[in-house]
Amino acid sequence: MNFSKSFTIFLPQNATPTEVFVRFKNEATENSATSPFSFIQSFITFVYEFKSLHSSESQQAIYTINSLTYDNFIQRIKKISSKQQKISIAPGLTICQAIKQLLRVNSLYGFLPEKIPEGSISPGPTYIDGMMTFNDFILPLKNKMQNLVDQYWSEIKDTEVVLKSSHELLILASLIERETYHNPEKNIIAGVYKNRIKSNMRLQSCPTVIYIITKGCKEFKRKLTFTDLKVESDFNTYRKTGLPPSPICLPGESSIKSAAHHDINDYLYFVASTKGQHRFSKDFESHKNHKKEWKKEIKQFIQKRKQLS
After folding, report:
1. Who contacts 27 (Cβ-Cβ below 8 Å, separation ≥6)?
2. What does the domain layout of the chain look like in residue ranges?
């Protein structure tokens, strides 16, 4: 497959993918040049990679397509994009947030898999060389996550009394991941959640409510309200007992490990502190006192910030 004519395409430095596509399509049509849609996608990817490495100070970038065969075109892509690239998906992101991040990576192209379940890919750094399709990039991360969950489930399944499956292990790990980024606390929080499940108490996990409100995609920039906590959803752990029906984010290995090998404790409650960690309680009275301390710390923090501004 090759173009029947040579033609030049003018691309503004800040052209959007849609603008690039329309310009290329129009030029190709006017010059009787046809190609599969996958070829056009590759061209768009190539243009952005080329522009990022060879951008000039001029307002327009000009590229001439001269009887370019598909094989030669792919070789040009590989030559320009041979530099190794690090792509890092942060633990705690939702699948929607992770996909938005991947769509901004120039070296990934093609179509996304039709359905990627929440919590199903492993976060962390990944290195790729040259160009790669979304499917080829995502599949190893799905396999890695599945292997991690299977590994930790196999270690506990004969003695575990709270979780009923490896899927529930993944769900619990996602709650832990969203509750704290402080690894030493994860085992304790896992113990709290399992204690509450065994006591038939609601988990009352704020991140599950935030997941409902944002649908796993939008940013949440305000405080939760009592009205939020009343929303009707299987994910609302303030209204439903037990775990939500699916993960709420992409948990890292430390959270999966903590969900499996939790701390044995008598805690039933925990509340945040301004130091980025939590205070744990065995009874509700202690928990209420800890909440008062937290509110006092927040008030002092706000006052101090006002004095400095």
Report:
1. 7, 8, 9, 33
2. 7-80, 84-143, 145-308
